[in-house]
Predict the 3D structure of the following.
Amino acid sequence: MREPLEAVKGLEEASMDLMLTEGLGLIAGCMTTCSFIPQVVRTYRTRSVSDISLSMYLLFCSGVAMWIVYGVLIGSVAVTAANVVSLVLSASILAMKLRYGKEAGKPDKDENM
């Protein structure tokens, strides 16, 4: 009769470990995702995009989209949620780069790469 009780305790410990792991992932995701907010705000306010790399943001947005798919496939809320927000923020920078870069009438430095 002792074995089933120990099995339940083992499940509780595994569940708690999973919750802590997912919680750590959510905190890390929140911190790294929030790092884009100052750039989004600054770019929006100044409309200055000349120092923003178009190729970097194209690659980054593509990679983040793949992380979202991966997060969904493995069922990780932390991976999926953090990357959805990251994609929204980085895509907004990319959109501003495309919009405000064309308004300046100058070719993008990255176009020659």
Notes: The domain at 2-112 is CATH 1.20.1280.290 (Monooxygenase). Helices lie at 2-34, 37-46, 54-74, 77-103. The CA atoms of residues 53 and 109 lie 8 Å apart.
